[in-house]
Amino acid sequence: VKPDTIPLPPGTHLLIAQSGKIDHVPLDGNDMRKSDAKALLYVPDKVVIGVAYDCLEKMVYWTDISSPSISRASLGGGEPVSIIKTDLESPEGIALDHLGRTIFWTDSQLDRIEVAKLDGSQRRVLFDTDLVNPRAIVADPMRGNLYWTDWNREAPKIEASYMDGTNRRILVKEDLGLPNGLTFDTYSSLLCWVDAGTKRVECMDPNQLGRRKILEGIQYPFSITSYGKNLFYTDWRRDAVVTVDRTTSQETDNFQPHKRTRLYGITTALAQCPQGHNYCSVN
Amino acid sequence: DATTGSSSDCQPCPCPGGSSCAIVPKTKEVVCTSCPAGTTGKRCELCDDGYFGDPLGENGPARLCRLCQCSDNIDPNAVGNCNRLTGECLKCIYNTAGFYCDRCKDGFYGNPLAQNTEDKCKACSCNPYGTVNLQTNCNQVTGQCECLPHVTERDCSSCQPGFYNLQSRRGCERCNCHPLGSTN
Q1: For chain A, what percent of residues have pLDDT higher than 70?
Q2: Looking at chain A, which residue has its C-alpha nearest residue B91?
Q3: Cβ-Cβ contacts under 8 Å for B63 (sequence gap 6 or more)
Q4: Which of A149, A176, B124, B171 has the highest CB neighbour count under 10 A?
């Protein structure tokens, strides 16, 4: 019998993958309310890497590399269901388009980026060329864009395309090391990433291509998410979630779960969906 | 369940060293929440990602969790580098393969345990004209491809002296030059 999720109180939360569980930390304004951090979901025999959140149906989606699969569970409490179980080897990053009702994921062993409906149906390969170690992936449903990182040590890059796979292009390839994590903030239109090679947090506006270093000399970042003026990244060396104020370029807080092991994916579970529509949601 | 009011309401956690546990609502399943470092699972019976072993000895003698042993042929930035129970390496790089990433993958040769990555595994690149059955594999150590008759070189790319016509794909033919009219 698989464990159920523990119902989540209203409000915006961070969801954090730590091997066999997903934790949540409520946000108070832009900051973590660490004293109220709790486990959201136990899947003790799995290795959860990527997490994504559907703000409409209040469901959490995750990738698992131990018995390669993609699963989901309702935050209102409910049993996890595997939606994709075949033809996966190392599913890592996962992104969700709450308007088009689709998920996107990277597989670093098959070297592919794929898309499917939220129930796992209508699965399709978006990209299977020029990918070596694809990892983080994020969607910008409002503008119909998809962004992902590839930490290929020979030629790391951050790429973009439309959500139907057209208009694929390299956004960043200079001065990258191991771009493990990526986040897109709808409200500021900023694309931010963490790099375990250059040890930096950086941001850019994908339309203007201006690039800004937020923080240097960080330890070993894996994943990043944004909320308001803050960025939150997981760190393999600190076994912690670190808060960075991107407006002041300061580390302002950190949260270390009781269990000391690596933290993987992190995402923001917004209390309410951002308003909007896109081509996929009307067609 | 401490709310029932009987003396057996609280039971010890079935976790190593009596460490803490939690009951999952609805299913009532007990899950250990503070497994010893490097271990995970419902009862701390599994190793964390990047480690392998059998800490509770569920499949034979107990083995402590150890870092993946993959001959330095994995990338520390990758996840899922080895099987958590058996230690089988799952993400060999530098064109290596095998349980411990300790041999070259098919179509490559060299020393997978070499210090420099350039010295590790190189492509066989067997010449299709000179190689038996268009094979792409070669000797794991020397890199020698299996050559057709009278074909030579590691990659079967040329004819032995006194032979010609590599392009025939059947091996090289004797030149049959008359010894009196030829320079060598």
Answers
A1: 94
A2: A109
A3: B53, B54, B55, B57
A4: A149
